[in-house]
Amino acid sequence: MDRFLSIQAFVRVAESQSFAAAARQIGVTPSVITSRIKQLERFVQATLFHRSTRKVALSEVGALFFEEC
Questions:
Q1: Distance CA 66, CA 35 (A)
Q2: Which of 2, 17, 26, 28 is the most exposed place for a label (fewest CB within 10 A)?
């Protein structure tokens, strides 16, 4: 796992509240963003986002992690 790329993806998703928008900004597919976020969540051993089909929101741990980024 490249932590820098995973953190970059996390920050973009947190700011845009969208995996697709973050993917467009970085120039990768949404599945790449999903993979990077899952790797980061495994690394920090916590869920960083609450996901639904219509919304992406930071979890409590995600909000604290975002402040550190």
A1: 18
A2: 2
Q: Given CA atoms 47, 44, 21, 1 in this order, what sign does their dihedral have?
A: negative
Q: Which residues contact 43 (CB under 8 A, 6 or more apart)?
A: 1, 3, 6
pTM comes to: 0.93
Cβ–Cβ < 8 Å for 18, 28: no
pLDDT in tens, 15-66: 999 999 999 999 999 999 999 999 999 999 999 999 998 899 999 999 999 9
b or e along 26-64 (b: 16 or more beta carbons within 10 Å of the residue's beta carbon)?
Answer: beeeeebbbebbebbbeeeeeebbeeeeeebebeeebee
Place of tokens 């467009």: 24
Place of tokens 């969208």: 18
